[in-house]
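Chapter review: from sequence to fold.
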Amino acid sequence: MIPVRGSTAAQATPDQVDALLLFFCGALVLLAAFGLAFYVGGLGGRARAARAFRFVLLGLAVSVVLAIAGGYGMVAGPPLIGHLLGKPDPGLASLAGTDPAAASPYPLARAGYVIAVLVLCTAVVAVAVSSRLTLRAWIVFTVLWLPLVVVPVAYGVFSLDDGWGVAGLHVVDFGGALPIVAAGSSAVGVLLACGRGEHQPAHPVTPSLLAFGGATLWVGWLGLVVGSEGALDAFAPLMAIGAFVASAAGVLMWMLVDAVLLRRPALTSALWGAFAGLVSVTAASGVLTLGWAMLVGALSALACATMVDLAARARFGPSLTLCVVTIVGGLVGLLFPGLFASGSGMVDSGNFDLFIAQGVAGMAVLLYATTVSLLLALALRFTAGLTRIRYGAGRGLPAQHPVVTERDAPPVADRVADGVADQADSRR
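The token string follows.
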């Protein structure tokens, strides 16, 4: 028989409670990564959603393996190169210790949360480029891109004592808005290397995938916001409610923009507005009251909706919409505390230091990530092969069903005539 334990149960320590919160938030962040694949991929039909999900899974595998092989230490470990890079920690040996059973669970829980954030950044790029790249090119790009782009940017946020952003420039970035901006900028660099060519999807939009992916992304992003606090204290519930308020304000603002522009508000409008609000509240989630969270969500949705309309002329499709929302929403969230932070914001104190620091950090990450990713993608395009559709199929895997662009498609009159002729032949 199993021996009966005493009636007195040991109470959980604060470290154990905080570790449980981080484990749960990390799981939600991974859920957001998969929801992003269903949502953006669903804009091009089931086949594209399945391919986006495959790219996210491969990116997750590469990110986790590199993080365990030493990448986490380079992101959040003791400095190897001051303010830029940490020491690799293979196998997370310094966190587990010699006796894992007696060690505190909090360091490993924080490592799991940070790795989940790295997976989310990889998922943003994966979903944006899944319709363009071959699987081989995506794996090679991810292996090179993570240490060259994501690691130095994430070190500036998650290394609280030595990071170039938090400790150097004193940037306010609680949830990792800078790595998210880097992911969106990197996707832009890859799309520029591939060139234009994405037009109307071959399959209709799938509303069920959009709804499921958008709802999953909405709920999962809360893990990114709440987990950034790192503890179950008095601020964690306020951060969760603030994220809800910001996303709700984003939904209403984006649909209002559609109504002003005489467009019919659709499901995608509501979901993009919610996503814009969540991205904007990520940076300053720990210092925003509910009213300010509502304002930053509305401003972010307004800016993103305006920039999406302008970017639509470039004809890059839903991939560019994702890039615009992550970049513009992240920059709005970074600049907002520089303007309205109590005691240090420009409006309250008349001091421009915080606003300049926030802007410099955001623009530096944007330019750096775009440039490095563009160079990596160009190098792959002219060596191992990059794209999977006709404008790059010579160096990549040719598509089974080539995409027909508007330039190559026959005129409407010719298509109608061909259809009439086919019907006449069938009657004969």
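Two observations follow directly from the output. The first strand starts at residue 79 and ends at 81. The chain is about 70% helix and 0% strand.
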